[in-house]
Write a structure and sequence with these properties.
The protein has helices at 3-16, 19-40, 44-57, 80-88, 92-112, 118-137, 142-157, 161-175, 191-213, 215-236, 247-255, 263-274, 286-302, 312-324, 332-346, 355-362, 370-385. It has a domain at 239-389 and 392-396. It has 396 residues and is mainly α. The radius of gyration is 21 Å and the shape is globular. The longest helix has 23 residues, at 191-213. The chain has 17 helices and no strands. It holds the Pfam family GT87.
Length: 396
């Protein structure tokens, strides 16, 4: 390689690994997506979120349709009335912008806390950037759900049990997904302290909206929330919805059988997910724990029939973590599987992917889930049979 080419390559690598540059790119993605969708008038999810607060002020049902204000219905918990309030009181052009930035910065911070080398953390940023953009176009909270799960793990790693419990309850009371943070319970050292912290935080998140909107109204909201989620499960399990991009959804759509139950898949999934916990002597290895983080992030998505395309930012953080904890030299099979995930899971909803293939095969058969399902099974195999060691993933 010529000296000039070597110098250029060196500069490019330096730029790619510059955290300030990465942060700038992430912020630009948030702002560009916000500007594009806002000026198209395509920010329906944000309108749903905003009106959770507006309707709570008027003591209206948070979970019924308001077709004159937005399409679809709200499925976020009563605590979301408090979380969305700082954004909802702003004009939409500011509220949408700050909402996008808050989600992006939260995930950026969460990833920065991972116990990986500096360059591997940077690689996670680049790997998930396109999938994050898909979520940004939908103004999705799933970006923050991914952050909550990752940050829960890192707080447990740092023995900050209260903050781990805080994050788990935050995610649970907003969108239920946060409950999967309990998967890291076996890695907690002071378990009683952690359990008490969970109880305290659960009480705080349960009661806090009542201070603003009244106990009787919020209690009714919890009942309505449960009802709406039950109804949503039935609606999602169809052959035509934009959701159910999951193990069950893929099987239902490939077999053209809407009556296939979630239960057998969920039971099998939970059993496989939990089996590696039996390897107690492996808990001390960072690689083992990081693989459990990857498994949790992917599991939460592929076994939920509420999963839609923007939900996969959660799973794709798991894919990135899985790939980057592989020991060198990385198997060619794993590299091929990672590229398969980039193409089919991350790129398939975008113009970077052939539209005919997307509309004829990927969307009708929920194939966006396929690479993540395969990777999750590989992770389970590794967690069950791999001999872990103390490979240094933190420095360097």
């Amino acid at each position: 390689m010529k000296p000039n080419q070597t110098n250029l390559t060196s500069r490019l690598l330096s730029l790619v690994n510059n955290r300030k540059f990465i942060l700038l790119i992430w912020v630009l993605l948030a702002l560009i997506a916000c500007y594009k969708q806002y000026h198209k008038g395509s920010y329906n999810n944000y309108l749903i979120f905003k009106h959770v607060y507006v309707h709570a002020l008027d003591k209206l049902n948070l979970y019924i349709a308001y077709p004159q204000q937005y399409l679809d219905t709200n499925h976020y918990g009563p605590f979301f009335t408090v979380l969305i309030a700082p954004f909802a009181i702003l004009p939409d052009y500011l509220g949408t912008m700050f909402w996008q930035l808050a989600n992006v910065l939260f995930l950026y911070f969460a990833i920065s806390q991972l116990s990986l080398t500096y360059r591997r953390v940077n690689a996670v940023y680049w790997i998930v950037a396109h999938e994050m953009l898909t979520a940004l176009f939908s103004f999705q909270f799933n970006i923050s759900i991914a952050a909550i799960i990752v940050l829960t793990f890192t707080m447990i790693e740092k023995q900050k049990n209260f903050w781990a419990a805080f994050l788990i309850m935050l995610g649970t009371f907003v969108k239920l997904y946060g409950i999967v943070g309990l998967a890291f319970f076996f890695f907690v050292r002071k378990k009683m302290q952690f359990v008490l912290s969970c109880i305290i935080c659960a009480v705080i998140f349960f009661v806090l909206p009542m201070l603003f909107f009244g106990p009787s109204y919020i209690l009714q909201c919890y009942h309505d929330w449960y009802t709406s989620l039950s109804e949503k499960q039935e609606l999602n399990a169809s052959l035509t919805s934009m959701q159910d991009i999951s193990v069950m959804g893929m099987v239902r759509r490939i077999t053209d059988n809407v009556h296939i139950s979630n239960l057998p898949f969920l039971v099998a999934g939970v059993v496989l997910f939990c089996l590696p916990y039996l390897r107690i002597n492996q808990y001390k290895f960072l690689n083992f724990r990081l693989l459990y983080l990857a498994s949790t992030l992917i599991f939460a998505v592929i076994f939920s029939n509420s999963s839609e395309s923007p939900t996969y930012i959660i799973a794709f953080v798991g894919v990135a973590v899985w790939f980057l904890v592989q020991e060198k030299p990385v198997s060619g099979w794993y590299i091929a599987l990672f590229i398969f995930a980039l193409l089919l899971t991350s790129f398939s909803p975008s113009d970077l992917f052939p539209r005919f293939v997307r509309e004829t095969y990927v969307q009708p058969y929920s194939l966006k889930a396929l690479p993540c399902i395969i990777i999750w099974l590989v992770i389970i195999y590794q967690l069950l049979f791999k001999k872990f060691n103390q490979e240094n993933l933190i420095h360097g």
